[in-house]
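PROTEIN DESIGN WORKSHEET
SECTION A - STRUCTURE
LENGTH: 198
TOKENS:
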């Protein structure tokens, strides 16, 4: 009686292994894409936080891969940077994670997961729903980034108040990141059709 399910499990194992490998590779591709996004930088004179392409990559990872794989892709990205690979805007290694942009980086996995979960739920409403999901991911990144930046400013002794922290870590980037969210939402439908993850 038990032999038939066992045989079915054995035949399904290569399929499950292959799918797992495809999923891991897909996540790794988006991790590499996020690393490339860090190379796109515009430095503003009044803040150590640069404008980069990373946020767009994080949103795209979550919306295209889904919550679980989007999260995995950004964990892979952070692991590569923490190991010393120069994949962050400020290089690599633990010191880069502890710098002024550390909070944004730490927020990437959660932002990808939130984006993926909301895009899956709101996606039936079309690009408006996808845009809302991506905007939620932007909010997660900004909350994490601003909280960290405030603590970092206190540690280095700049004495920046609440409004000053927001002026240096959120306000200059909100509009730009909303545009990135719209671009990610526009690309997601066609990208999903091309990904071998379905």
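SECTION B - SEQUENCE
RESIDUE ASSIGNMENT:
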């Amino acid at each position: 009686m038990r032999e038939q399910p066992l045989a079915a499990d054995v035949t399904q194992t290569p399929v499950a292994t292959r799918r797992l490998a495809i999923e891991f590779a897909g996540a790794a591709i988006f991790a590499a894409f996020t690393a490339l996004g860090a190379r796109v930088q515009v430095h503003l004179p009044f803040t150590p936080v640069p404008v980069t392409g990373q946020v767009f990559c994080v949103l795209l990872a979550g919306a295209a891969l889904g919550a679980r794989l989007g999260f995995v892709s950004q964990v892979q990205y952070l692991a590569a940077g923490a190991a010393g690979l120069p994949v962050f805007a400020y290089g690599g290694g633990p010191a880069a994670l502890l710098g002024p942009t550390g909070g944004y980086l730490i927020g990437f996995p959660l932002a990808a997961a939130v984006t993926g979960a909301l895009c899956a739920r709101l996606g039936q409403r079309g690009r408006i729903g996808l845009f809302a999901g991506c905007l939620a991911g932007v909010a997660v990144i900004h909350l994490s980034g601003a909280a960290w930046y405030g603590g970092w400013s206190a540690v280095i002794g700049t004495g920046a108040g609440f409004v000053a922290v927001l002026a240096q870590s959120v306000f200059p980037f909100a509009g730009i990141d909303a545009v990135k969210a719209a671009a990610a939402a526009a690309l997601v439908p066609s990208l999903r059709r091309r990904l071998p993850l379905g």
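SECTION C - NOTES
The beta strands are 41-42, 51-52.
Residues 3-39 form the longest helix (37 residues).
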